[in-house]
Design a protein that fits this description.
- Two copies of one chain form a homodimer.
- In chain A, 44% of the residues lie in helices and 16% in strands.
- By secondary structure, the first copy, chain A, is α/β, with parallel strands linked by helices.
- In chain A, strands 1-2-3-6-7-8-9-10 form an eight-stranded parallel beta barrel, surrounded by six helices. In chain A, strands 4-5 form a two-stranded antiparallel ribbon.
- In chain A, a hairpin with a 2-residue loop joins strand 4 and strand 5.
- In chain A, helix 3 (38-56) crosses helix 13.
- The longest helix of chain A has 19 residues, at 38-56.
- Chains A and B meet through helix 4, helix 5, helix 6, helix 7 and helix 8 of A and helix 4, helix 5, helix 6, helix 7 and helix 8 of B.
């Protein structure tokens, strides 16, 4: 699946992913005014996301859908999450379910069936929240990751494991030094490399990649150098404060090796003076193009 | 909320929690035979769990509902998850949503609103998957945990943070030694103590506790000694291999300080020769009583 993502990036000449972290507050007032039940929330989030997808699918390779913003509306939110993943896929986009799931092996296997593999029961088979990639937290170690890797292999999917996250406190644990000389995040990256070593595709990157926050440039530089087979999912650009120059260190000399996420910067572009006169999806398209131009000033793709 | 859990443990003289990790395979064949859609799955899981709850709510203080086993059936599974939490609460049980969620602050806040706090939008307020406690993965550090702690304080709820998990590979990262002399799991426990220091109740335990696997006795002994204010949620008894003697090290001299989970051992008790002649919920009740007897051989409650 990493090969397909890279091909989409090359085709669009755009190493970015739009984060559909859509909550009701992000919707235009006229859409909010029509909401009077959780069922309406499902319809509104789905409509908003579909219009964004329709207006970016030819210029952006992938969407990242953050499940927390849907879980907070209960089963109706989860229905909108599912609708969004399905629709983006139907429009040819690569889909990343940002779920950060983690558990012991048997339970991780249940999560993996929900997103990557298949749930089988009573003669039926379903993958309710089918995604091309998921994000995973690796704190539990190898046997908690194996079900995801096995399904990535069997169903041509992928996973990004949290290595160095974009939040200000990520160093609390992740930057602590181990007695073997590695920081915790370098140790995690070492595991990720091992977990994905049999899934390296034709561009030299593995289906098992790493989440590396754009807001920690020094750490990203270390990781890019030490782990050439790891493809990075890079959050933190834009609303969280990282610039295009900051994120450029995540890329290899061919302009590959990373994909940069922006969520609020795209979804809420219509609220900015810069995009006055455009509706939310026209503004999202223009903001996506502006982001592409900004990133590719520093990246030779 | 930890005080209520401790009072329920004292009242039932039972330091155990039943894990409702209910998947279709665990249901009696006659229930499986009636399933021909995901909607049927929702009904069957809900019915099974309600019958278990009805038959244990007077003898067991709490249930732990593992969301992965519901997510794998999509929105219908999530509806059964919600039904189960609501029903167990209505029968006076303490509810633990085993979700192991984690993210940067703004996103963690969305998760927290789904389980502990409230989602507000368009004049409405909902807590779709309302739970007394949740489990959380602390790899992201302080600002990713803060929304859960804030809601625990505001709404009298609690959280158990993964410290030393029960799976065989948990030591991959968790047992690595840091340069400050702590293992990673001891370092995590140190954070957990700090995060919950303002939420210590009348029994000396905090609303912010730790997940400590029963399968790692030596580590549990260290943690019990070094962190007297942390209440432990202890998975790994029974099907995962730990004995009552193994788990006894998680308790203080008053028989408090921990609650031990069993899932398959209770839900699938009806399949064991020992419980022949009983239906699934009668077997679950008897297995719960047997577990209580087993645990209290080693714990003075």
């Amino acid at each position: 699946m990493i090969d397909l993502l890279i091909e989409k990036i090359k085709q669009t000449k755009n190493p970015s992913v739009v984060g559909l972290d859509t909550c009701v507050d992000y919707l235009p007032q006229e859409m909010q005014d029509k909401i009077s039940s959780l069922s309406d929330v499902c319809d509104a989030l789905t409509e908003f996301n579909k219009n964004i997808v329709d207006n970016i699918c030819d210029i952006v390779p992938a969407v990242k859908v953050q499940v927390a913003y849907y879980e907070m509306y209960g089963v109706y939110g989860m229905q909108a999450f599912q609708n969004t993943l399905q629709y983006a896929k139907s429009k040819g986009m690569v889909t990343i379910a940002d779920i950060k799931r983690n558990d012991i092996g048997s339970t991780a296997s249940a999560y993996s069936r929900a997103y990557l593999g298949k749930s089988s029961f009573c003669g039926m088979e379903v993958t309710p929240f089918a995604s091309d990639f998921i994000t995973v937290n690796g704190y539990l170690g190898t046997d908690g990751i194996k079900p995801f890797i096995d399904d990535a292999k069997q169903y041509d999917k992928g996973a990004f494991i949290l290595v160095k996250t974009s939040n200000p406190s990520s160093g609390d644990l992740q930057n602590k030094k181990l007695q073997n000389g590695n920081t915790v995040f370098e140790e995690m990256a070492t595991f990720v490399k091992e977990w994905g070593k049999d899934l390296v595709g034709k561009y030299g990157y593995s289906d098992v990649g790493a989440v590396v926050g754009a807001t920690h440039k020094a750490e990203a530089e270390v990781l890019r150098k030490k782990f050439p087979s790891l493809f990075f999912l890079v959050p933190g650009y834009g609303a969280q404060g990282a610039t295009a120059e900051d994120v450029s260190v995540n890329f290899d000399k061919n302009g590959l090796g990373a994909i940069v996420n922006s969520s609020r910067g795209i979804l809420c572009a219509y609220k900015k003076d810069k995009y006055t006169g455009k509706n939310y999806y026209q503004a999202a398209r223009k903001a996506s193009l502006d982001m592409k131009d900004d990133l590719t000033k520093y990246i030779n793709l």
